[in-house]
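The instructor's notes for this session suggest beginning with a concrete chain rather than abstract definitions. Hand out the sequence below and ask the class to guess, before any prediction is shown, which regions might be ordered.
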Amino acid sequence: MEAGAHFGHQSRRWNPKMKPYIFTTRDGVHIFDLTLTAQKIKEAADAIADWVSQGQEIIFVGTKRQAQPIIREEALKVGAPYVATRWLGGMLTNWTEMERRIKRLNDLKAKREKGELKLYTKRERVMIDKDIAKLERFFGGIAHLTERPQALFVVDTHKEVAAVKEAKKLNLMVIGLVDTNADPYEVTIPIPINDDAVRSIKLVVNKMAEAYRQGRQIKDQGK
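After discussion, reveal the predicted structure:
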Protein backbone atom coordinates (compact mmCIF):
# COMPACT_ATOMS: atom_id res chain seq x y z
CA MET A 1 0.00 0.00 0.00
CA GLU A 2 2.84 2.38 0.82
CA ALA A 3 4.13 2.12 -2.75
CA GLY A 4 0.77 3.29 -4.10
CA ALA A 5 0.61 0.01 -5.99
CA HIS A 6 -3.14 -0.33 -5.40
CA PHE A 7 -4.21 2.80 -7.31
CA GLY A 8 -5.41 2.23 -10.86
CA HIS A 9 -6.63 4.87 -13.29
CA GLN A 10 -9.91 6.76 -13.13
CA SER A 11 -12.76 4.32 -13.57
CA ARG A 12 -13.92 6.04 -16.79
CA ARG A 13 -10.55 5.22 -18.40
CA TRP A 14 -10.56 1.52 -17.63
CA ASN A 15 -10.33 -1.56 -19.82
CA PRO A 16 -13.17 -3.94 -18.82
CA LYS A 17 -10.80 -6.90 -19.28
CA MET A 18 -9.05 -5.75 -16.07
CA LYS A 19 -12.20 -6.35 -13.99
CA PRO A 20 -10.92 -9.61 -12.35
CA TYR A 21 -8.00 -7.69 -10.83
CA ILE A 22 -10.02 -4.76 -9.44
CA PHE A 23 -11.07 -4.85 -5.79
CA THR A 24 -13.24 -1.72 -5.64
CA THR A 25 -13.67 1.87 -6.82
CA ARG A 26 -12.84 4.80 -4.54
CA ASP A 27 -13.51 8.44 -5.45
CA GLY A 28 -13.76 7.51 -9.11
CA VAL A 29 -10.47 5.59 -9.08
CA HIS A 30 -10.14 1.84 -9.45
CA ILE A 31 -8.33 0.02 -6.64
CA PHE A 32 -6.40 -3.17 -7.39
CA ASP A 33 -6.84 -6.39 -5.45
CA LEU A 34 -3.31 -6.54 -4.05
CA THR A 35 -3.66 -10.22 -3.15
CA LEU A 36 -3.87 -10.98 -6.87
CA THR A 37 -1.07 -8.51 -7.56
CA ALA A 38 1.21 -10.33 -5.10
CA GLN A 39 0.34 -13.68 -6.69
CA LYS A 40 1.20 -12.39 -10.15
CA ILE A 41 4.47 -10.84 -8.97
CA LYS A 42 5.51 -14.23 -7.57
CA GLU A 43 4.40 -16.04 -10.73
CA ALA A 44 6.39 -13.61 -12.87
CA ALA A 45 9.51 -13.81 -10.69
CA ASP A 46 9.40 -17.62 -10.71
CA ALA A 47 9.04 -17.60 -14.50
CA ILE A 48 12.02 -15.28 -14.98
CA ALA A 49 14.24 -17.27 -12.61
CA ASP A 50 13.33 -20.51 -14.37
CA TRP A 51 13.78 -18.96 -17.82
CA VAL A 52 17.21 -17.52 -17.11
CA SER A 53 18.38 -20.69 -15.31
CA GLN A 54 17.84 -22.50 -18.63
CA GLY A 55 20.24 -20.13 -20.37
CA GLN A 56 17.53 -18.01 -21.97
CA GLU A 57 17.54 -14.20 -22.03
CA ILE A 58 14.83 -11.65 -21.29
CA ILE A 59 14.97 -7.93 -22.11
CA PHE A 60 13.86 -5.46 -19.43
CA VAL A 61 11.86 -2.71 -21.18
CA GLY A 62 10.76 0.61 -19.68
CA THR A 63 10.97 3.81 -21.71
CA LYS A 64 8.51 6.06 -19.85
CA ARG A 65 10.19 8.85 -17.91
CA GLN A 66 9.69 7.43 -14.41
CA ALA A 67 10.70 3.91 -15.46
CA GLN A 68 13.92 4.68 -17.36
CA PRO A 69 16.34 5.11 -14.44
CA ILE A 70 14.83 2.17 -12.56
CA ILE A 71 15.09 -0.21 -15.51
CA ARG A 72 18.64 0.91 -16.24
CA GLU A 73 19.83 0.66 -12.63
CA GLU A 74 18.23 -2.69 -11.81
CA ALA A 75 19.21 -4.34 -15.11
CA LEU A 76 22.82 -3.18 -14.85
CA LYS A 77 22.97 -4.45 -11.28
CA VAL A 78 22.29 -8.04 -12.40
CA GLY A 79 23.68 -7.95 -15.94
CA ALA A 80 20.30 -8.17 -17.68
CA PRO A 81 19.76 -6.71 -21.16
CA TYR A 82 17.52 -3.64 -21.19
CA VAL A 83 15.90 -0.95 -23.32
CA ALA A 84 15.27 2.29 -21.44
CA THR A 85 15.44 5.03 -24.08
CA ARG A 86 13.14 4.13 -26.95
CA TRP A 87 11.92 0.89 -28.45
CA LEU A 88 13.02 0.90 -32.08
CA GLY A 89 10.78 -0.89 -34.55
CA GLY A 90 12.30 -4.24 -35.50
CA MET A 91 14.25 -4.77 -32.30
CA LEU A 92 12.83 -8.29 -32.28
CA THR A 93 11.31 -8.81 -35.72
CA ASN A 94 14.36 -7.49 -37.61
CA TRP A 95 17.06 -8.92 -35.37
CA THR A 96 19.57 -9.19 -38.23
CA GLU A 97 19.62 -5.40 -38.51
CA MET A 98 19.90 -5.05 -34.74
CA GLU A 99 22.89 -7.41 -34.76
CA ARG A 100 24.53 -5.26 -37.42
CA ARG A 101 24.13 -2.11 -35.32
CA ILE A 102 25.27 -3.85 -32.15
CA LYS A 103 28.36 -5.12 -33.96
CA ARG A 104 29.15 -1.60 -35.19
CA LEU A 105 28.79 -0.22 -31.66
CA ASN A 106 31.06 -2.88 -30.18
CA ASP A 107 33.63 -2.53 -32.98
CA LEU A 108 33.83 1.26 -32.61
CA LYS A 109 34.12 1.05 -28.82
CA ALA A 110 36.87 -1.55 -29.13
CA LYS A 111 38.80 0.67 -31.53
CA ARG A 112 38.48 3.61 -29.17
CA GLU A 113 39.63 1.57 -26.17
CA LYS A 114 42.67 0.30 -28.12
CA GLY A 115 43.58 3.84 -29.12
CA GLU A 116 43.09 3.10 -32.82
CA LEU A 117 41.03 6.26 -33.32
CA LYS A 118 44.24 8.29 -33.03
CA LEU A 119 44.88 7.31 -36.64
CA TYR A 120 41.84 9.33 -37.71
CA THR A 121 41.58 13.09 -38.17
CA LYS A 122 40.08 15.19 -35.39
CA ARG A 123 36.91 15.70 -37.43
CA GLU A 124 36.61 11.97 -38.07
CA ARG A 125 37.09 11.21 -34.36
CA VAL A 126 34.32 13.67 -33.45
CA MET A 127 31.97 12.00 -35.94
CA ILE A 128 32.85 8.54 -34.62
CA ASP A 129 32.28 9.66 -31.01
CA LYS A 130 28.85 10.99 -32.03
CA ASP A 131 28.09 7.70 -33.76
CA ILE A 132 29.09 5.74 -30.66
CA ALA A 133 26.96 7.97 -28.42
CA LYS A 134 23.91 7.50 -30.65
CA LEU A 135 24.35 3.74 -30.90
CA GLU A 136 25.00 3.50 -27.15
CA ARG A 137 21.78 5.38 -26.45
CA PHE A 138 19.65 2.87 -28.31
CA PHE A 139 21.67 -0.35 -28.17
CA GLY A 140 23.97 -0.03 -25.16
CA GLY A 141 21.63 -2.06 -22.98
CA ILE A 142 21.56 -5.01 -25.39
CA ALA A 143 25.12 -4.75 -26.75
CA HIS A 144 26.21 -8.00 -25.08
CA LEU A 145 23.52 -10.12 -26.73
CA THR A 146 24.62 -12.66 -29.32
CA GLU A 147 21.15 -13.84 -30.31
CA ARG A 148 17.58 -12.60 -30.17
CA PRO A 149 16.04 -12.95 -26.69
CA GLN A 150 12.89 -15.03 -26.45
CA ALA A 151 11.14 -13.00 -23.74
CA LEU A 152 10.35 -9.47 -22.55
CA PHE A 153 9.66 -7.91 -19.16
CA VAL A 154 7.76 -4.67 -19.78
CA VAL A 155 6.85 -1.72 -17.56
CA ASP A 156 3.48 -0.40 -18.81
CA THR A 157 2.22 -2.61 -21.63
CA HIS A 158 -0.08 0.21 -22.78
CA LYS A 159 2.91 2.50 -23.36
CA GLU A 160 5.16 -0.24 -24.79
CA VAL A 161 2.55 -1.51 -27.25
CA ALA A 162 5.10 -1.71 -30.11
CA ALA A 163 7.41 -3.98 -28.11
CA VAL A 164 4.51 -6.19 -27.01
CA LYS A 165 3.21 -6.50 -30.57
CA GLU A 166 6.61 -7.59 -31.87
CA ALA A 167 6.95 -10.18 -29.13
CA LYS A 168 3.44 -11.52 -29.78
CA LYS A 169 4.15 -11.76 -33.50
CA LEU A 170 7.07 -14.05 -32.68
CA ASN A 171 5.17 -15.95 -29.94
CA LEU A 172 7.62 -14.83 -27.26
CA MET A 173 6.92 -14.79 -23.52
CA VAL A 174 5.89 -11.34 -22.27
CA ILE A 175 5.68 -10.38 -18.60
CA GLY A 176 4.27 -6.92 -18.05
CA LEU A 177 2.97 -4.37 -15.59
CA VAL A 178 -0.66 -3.72 -16.55
CA ASP A 179 -2.68 -0.82 -15.16
CA THR A 180 -6.48 -0.62 -15.28
CA ASN A 181 -6.39 0.93 -18.77
CA ALA A 182 -4.50 -2.02 -20.31
CA ASP A 183 -5.44 -5.38 -21.80
CA PRO A 184 -4.05 -8.20 -19.60
CA TYR A 185 -4.60 -10.72 -22.39
CA GLU A 186 -1.91 -9.06 -24.52
CA VAL A 187 0.81 -10.56 -22.32
CA THR A 188 1.75 -14.02 -21.03
CA ILE A 189 1.90 -13.01 -17.37
CA PRO A 190 0.17 -9.74 -16.45
CA ILE A 191 1.12 -7.98 -13.20
CA PRO A 192 -1.88 -5.81 -12.24
CA ILE A 193 -0.44 -2.74 -10.54
CA ASN A 194 -0.08 1.04 -10.66
CA ASP A 195 2.46 1.42 -13.48
CA ASP A 196 2.86 5.19 -13.05
CA ALA A 197 4.07 5.49 -9.45
CA VAL A 198 7.85 5.35 -9.12
CA ARG A 199 7.74 3.28 -5.94
CA SER A 200 5.45 0.60 -7.36
CA ILE A 201 7.57 0.38 -10.53
CA LYS A 202 10.70 0.10 -8.40
CA LEU A 203 9.08 -2.60 -6.24
CA VAL A 204 8.30 -4.88 -9.18
CA VAL A 205 11.42 -4.23 -11.27
CA ASN A 206 13.59 -4.92 -8.23
CA LYS A 207 11.89 -8.29 -7.69
CA MET A 208 12.22 -9.23 -11.36
CA ALA A 209 15.90 -8.25 -11.35
CA GLU A 210 16.47 -10.38 -8.26
CA ALA A 211 14.72 -13.29 -10.01
CA TYR A 212 17.04 -12.77 -12.98
CA ARG A 213 20.06 -12.85 -10.65
CA GLN A 214 18.86 -16.07 -9.04
CA GLY A 215 18.27 -17.69 -12.42
CA ARG A 216 21.73 -16.69 -13.62
CA GLN A 217 23.26 -18.09 -10.42
CA ILE A 218 21.52 -21.45 -10.93
CA LYS A 219 22.68 -21.54 -14.56
CA ASP A 220 26.29 -20.74 -13.61
CA GLN A 221 26.30 -23.40 -10.88
CA GLY A 222 25.16 -25.99 -13.39
CA LYS A 223 28.09 -25.40 -15.74
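Then share the key points. The beta strands are 7-10, 22-26, 29-32, 59-61, 82-83, 151-154, 173-178, 189-192. The longest strand covers residues 173-178.
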